[in-house]
Structure formats: C-alpha cells, structure tokens
Amino acid sequence: MLFDLFPPALVGLVLESLKQTVTMVAAAALLSTAIGLPLGILLVVTAPGQFMERPIFNRIAGTVVNLVRSTPFIILMVAIIPFTRLVAGTTVGTLAAIVPLTVAITPLYARLAEAAMREVDQNLIEAAESMGASPLQIIWKVLLPEALPGILAGQTVTLVSLVGYSAMAGTVGGGGLGDLGIRFGYQRFMPEVMIAVVVILVVIVQSIQMIGDWTARMVNHRVARRRAAA
C-alpha cells in the first residue's frame, strides 16, 4: 500500500527536494549569521549612550533593517530579481533562492542578536571600560559571551523562519519541498505528496527547535556558572 502511494520515482523527488531545502536553509543561515551578527553588534554599540555612539549611522542602519523586515517575503523575492540575477546569474533554482532568503532573514537575525545584546548588564560594560578595555575587547570578551544564550535562541528562530521562507520560495521556482508540494500536491492533485511535505517540514522545524533550545540552555548554564565564579 505504501509502495503504491510513494513509488521509487516519487521518493527520489522527495529526497532531492529535501536536499535542496537543506542546502537553501544552511547556506542562507551561514550568510545571514555572517552579515546579521556584525550588523546587530553595530546597532547596539552605535546607539546613543553606548561606547561607540554614532547616532546618524544607527538611525540609517535601523531604518534599512526595518524596511526590509516589513516587506513580505514573496514580494521581496520579486522586487530583488535584478539583484538575484546579478549575484547568482539566474533567478530560478536553489542557488537563486539563497539570495532573497539571505536578504530577507539577515535583518531579522540582526534584530534578534541586537535584542539579546541589549539585555547584557550595562555595569559589566562600564566596568570593562573603566579597566581600559578597547571597544573590540568589550565586544568579544563581554558583550558576545554574556549575550550568547540569547543569540543562540535568535539563531533558532532564524532557522525556523528560513524553513518557512524556503517553502515559499518554491512557489516562484526556488526548488525544494515547497516547489514539490505545489507542483505535485496541488497542481497534480496528489494529496499524499502534500502530506509528506508537511510532515517533513514539521519534523525539520521541531528538530531545529529542540536542538536550539537545548544548546541555548546549556550555554546559559555555563554563563551563569561563570558569573557565580566571578
């Protein structure tokens, strides 16, 4: 019965689509972290009253982040098609989908990282400044270690959001599980394919959430022990 519902050819398509989704999510997550974390740091340290205060830069960067975040992903994908073609050389397929995924998720991660770092006790930063620490030392030895649990929690939210965005990318030729669900589950009236896609996406999201929660909890315990020892 199961073999009738999912013949080998269809199973192959599911596995290939899963591979494409994992590729899109992993690549966009790495790129958004590489760009979003420094951006989040800048949003914190250049804010009024901080040790690298740059109000004009902070206002401009915050405005750009908010503009991108307020744009629905499906519209953003279409709006930046020329940029996607410039970067990836094409506007369809897994490689092309990584570009709008990165553009869409980077501001979200930057804001989540910023929120985590704003929770760091200001007294710790002032103490580091009084001991002659440079801005870079404050960032690496105080700000990031203390905010790490929140940053990891933000990374979990980012990955979960990326999974949902990657499914939407399939509606405009991005490939992956979303594309499979639309082409076979919806357009060809194969509900078993749609169910399989939904189940796989749920498993992926739940796995990311559990691993992310566990990692943040472990790091939080280590940070608490370090504070107690100090």
Automatic annotation (TrEMBL):
Membrane topology, as annotated: Multi-pass membrane protein
PROSITE patterns named in the record: ABC_TM1
Gene3D superfamilies xref list: MetI-like
Record-annotated ABC transmembrane type-1 domain positions: 18-212
Location(s) in or outside the cell: Cell membrane
Keywords: Cell membrane, Membrane, Transmembrane, Transmembrane helix, Transport
Annotated TM spans: 20-44, 56-81, 87-110, 193-212
Pfam family, one: BPD_transp_1
One Gene Ontology term from the biological process aspect of the record: D-methionine transmembrane transport
Any one GO CC term of the record: plasma membrane
InterPro entries tied to this protein: AA_ABC_Transporter_Permease, MetI-like, MetI-like_sf
Entry's family note: Belongs to the binding-protein-dependent transport system permease family. CysTW subfamily.
Protein known as: ABC transporter permease
Organism, scientific name: Rhizobium daejeonense
Taxonomic lineage of the native organism: Bacteria, Pseudomonadati, Pseudomonadota, Alphaproteobacteria, Hyphomicrobiales
